[in-house]
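Q: Could you predict the 3D structure of Cation-transporting P-type ATPase N-terminal domain-containing protein?
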Amino acid sequence: MDNQGIQLDEDIHDKSHTPHRQGPSRQDSAIDLWATVDKSRLDQDVHIIPLEDVFKRFHTDPRTGLSDDFVPEVRAQYGENKLTPPKQPFYLWLLFKELFMGFNCILWFAGVLAFLAYKPFGEPNPSITNLALGIVLILVITCNSILNVYQQLKSIKIVAAFSKLLPTLTTVRRDGREQQIVATELVPGDIVLIRMGDKLPADCRFISCDGLKVNTSELTGESKPVSATVRCTSTTFMESSNIGFYSSMVEQGTGEAVVIATGDDSVLGKMSKLTRGSSGDAVTGLHREVNRFVLFVVLSTITAIIILWITWASWLNRDHYGFVSYNANIVNSIGMIVGFLPVGLPSAVTLVLTIVAKQMYRQRVLVKSLQIVETFNSVSVIATDKTGTLTQNKMTVTHILWDVDSTYKVPLPQIEPTKEETILQTIRRLSSGAIETVRRLSVDAATMVRKLSTGSIGQPQPAAPVHRGKELSSDASEIKIEAFRDLLLGAALCNNAETQIVQDAQIGQDISKMKSELRVVGDAADTALYNLCNDRCFLDIDKVRDVNPRLKVLPFNSSNKFMISANQLESTDPSIPECNRTVLLTLKGAPDIVIQRCSTYKKNNDQVALLDSEIKKTIFGRQEELGKNGNRVIAMCQQRITRQQFDEMIEAYKNKQRSNSSDNEEDLCGFPSNNYCFAGLFSLLDPPRPEVPDAVLKARRAQIRVAMVTGDHPTTAKAIAKQVHILTPEIADMNGVDTFKLERNANDEPVLNLYRNDRLIQQHPPGEAKRTDSLSNNAKEMIRRASATGKSAKIQKVPWYKRAWASCKNQVKEPETDIEPTEKMEYIPYAVVVAGAEINHMDDFMWDWVLSHQELVFARTSPEQKLRIVTEFQRRAEIVAVTGDGTNDAPALKCAHLGVAMQSGTEVSKEAGDMVLLDNNFASIIQAIETGRLLSDNLKKVAIYLLPGGSWSQIWPVFFNLWFGMPLALSAFLATVFCMVNDVFMSLAMVTEKPERDIMSRAPSIRSKDHLLNLKLLFHAYMFVGNFECFTGFFCFCYYWIDKGVPFYSFMFTFENFGIDPKTPYTNDELITMTYVAQSVYYCSVCLFQFFNYFATRTRYTSIFEHNPFWGKGRNWYVFGAMIISAGVQLLITQVAWFNQVFSTGPVPVKYVMPTLGFGMSWLIIDELRKLCIRKFPRCFIARIAW
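A: Sure. Here are the predicted structure tokens for Cation-transporting P-type ATPase N-terminal domain-containing protein:
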């Protein structure tokens, strides 16, 4: 194995540092077994002592691992491999925070004023109504807080349940067998097998490394991946590269390690308290939208109260002394405070997040923060990987190709329709089939295995003459062509797939009920090649690998796009010395990269010929033909050297690594970079997921562009893009597909030629793209932590007032970004296919041209290029969601506004993403986008429902009372009940509304412009709905007075002379009682009008007849329950005598509220006509001012 970066040799360590003595046998009890181990020093010298001592300390063996019988004893001593979860939030603390945060702070102030208005300001005749008002405010605050806490706890429990849906699996060696177990079952001493994309399941010490690189930034702050080694590189435990830490990400290579600490005993477990203490929820866009709403309300409230007191002090109290007393003005201030506050909004936000959590749970979408869902509403581009995201990631080898025209079509199992047969026919069929199977497995398959696993494979074998164009036998064992057998041998040896015992972890299944089964585990392409050899060609792969042991491997990575393995071939001649044994180097990967490393190729007649440009062109042509059908093509080449040559080659590489010489050559871990012999091609079919085409079309209807960003060949990517409707007939076929290439003009100068359907349309000289800082918040935090741990780092302390101001500003304003804000581009109706090799030549003009296309495919991209693509989209004001399942997708997932990982992907990708699709269903992304749009829609509807009645219709009675000298139309108590009871239940019903029919045909919202509160929404809420509702309330209010014989001029501009000048037929006490009734009339009228406002507001553009609440997709029966509650509250406080006496209300005759029905229906009709006009004339003035 490759042990790089050796600084300290194990042999030079003083073994006296190891406090180990030979312990008793494994059959002893757990207490006696571990009594000889000094646990206090396990993390002090476990990285220094020789590996043999590590194995003795943990009673394990690197070849066989722990025994299954021994594991329970170890687990009893060390516990389960899981971190102690943070304490559940203390319910009383949550309630306390809810009581004194947000709107409740303002309501407490109103409650205090109510008590002061009772005493001492109410002396000498304090009004019991003011005391009751203060008590009601406290009760409402408490009930609202309890409701919000309850909804928060439901959301927390639902999100917490996500982590239990699918446990993390890890591969271990126990009893000499490799198997996958749940990571929580790991114990110290387990031998774990590590590969690229894994997350280390515990603290461990590496015992073998093959190009292994680990990202430890979460613990050490080191942003670059660390090359793992077997030997110690530092006496400091945290700095030695032979130690891997729990939760570290494996970014490259493979290896093995022995577990040294689990759960709370790991480094991460010991740091968990610090981690929890420093963690906090980031301020999301949804937080900022609500905070802007709160800021608007607070400023409006303060402004209104200032106007109120200025009016009273400068004019009213002087010219109309006694009309409104000091104490009455305090009560009016309470009415202003309560009137402006949309108390139902916080409850609506909490409830809508709970509903979203339930929907995500049903859709099997894991979101790390519910607030991130609001980002879905703005997504304008989905940059998606192909393999495993758009396709099923279930590859099947369909063809094997070699030479320039030889092809073997892999037989696929055919399911024949069953026919009725007699019992005798059934017995005869079964017996003959069994005999044939036994004969074939025992003769043909055994012969094939023997030929592939013997040293004679390097010698020419008699081959049956196969003429060009001749149909080959479907039985692989009958094909004697050496190139074909080399391909099968390479598929078996240059392959990391293997059978393992796997615990079948189903979503939501109890860990104790999981079943174990034997399954092929590995990369999709490796698994396909494994199944080809094992199922279609009947090779005993385990035997082939045993007799041809692997010496070294360079694992596949997204930069090289190939894998190299070295295996020592079996020889039947024992006289051949070890140094002269044959070592087979097998290289497989992307054809356009692999073929360039070949100098020869093997022909159909087993002869080796020179691989010239014409042959390469022919091979690439075969690749193109396969790619047009959506097939993925893998090339394979080989090189044979002696064992002595191999050892010298690896030793030279190690010496070069020790000398730290850097000559800018590619690092292939000592393997040769060229002079390989081309063997042939494998054609693999990975069909698209059946739900993807419809999901992509739905995204297109939602005006969201879906861009494919893949590492596959452009021809394959283009074919799959057409199958899943990323490239459509309407644009790609009818209008054309654009491409560009870096070529040279007549003056031999480099120029970018832009083509449309292979026809030159423009030339552009390559320039330099403007530098962009694509670091995400996560990456910036890593760099900050890394710099903070440096010795020379100096932390500049910011004054507290600047920190406080920055924190307040962050609550309402989007954080600054290094990516320059720009306007969105105009799209052109063409498709474009861009190869990764051309991306490095793109300047700003080229990025503008490429990203303006409606249909985009990026092929043969590297992780750095995928990250660049995401950043360039962001520079052009696009909100980008990135999907991916591989380790190479992690940087782009972190940088994107929304990172979407697949459950079947690597742990690295799942750690980097904001959400994980547990069912790997691409269509779930579209459902999530619809959920995000529904969330935004419903919150806007809640706001536009609350503002007209909750503020506009309640502040004007106070101002009309002051300015026009009329009786107060709405008391502070009734305003409080209206805002905190009637409107709250109705707004909660609004949150449960279903999506409108056109919700997925609208353009994505623009985050910088489309806020929860904007001028269009305020204009509609106040100028249209608010004024209409105010007019309705005052109409009923005046109707009552006039009908009672008090003419209009008798209560307008009368101020302190109401009932006296002009004279009315009622006494002062009777006028006070009538005022209570008139206020109740206004209150009931506004409550009733809000019912009509609800039905008008529940749809933005759709007619109520198409989206009715009674049946169909728009059904919402919760609103009728809310209406019943609201009507019941109205009856309770206006018709019950006790409420009339304590809260100064009065019984309301029905006839005075009936005009509201006419006004309400009128508003409903007006709003329906407005929506009809918007639907028919989407560019008219009414549509432009629509909310």
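Q: Anything worth pointing out?
A: The longest strand covers residues 203-215.
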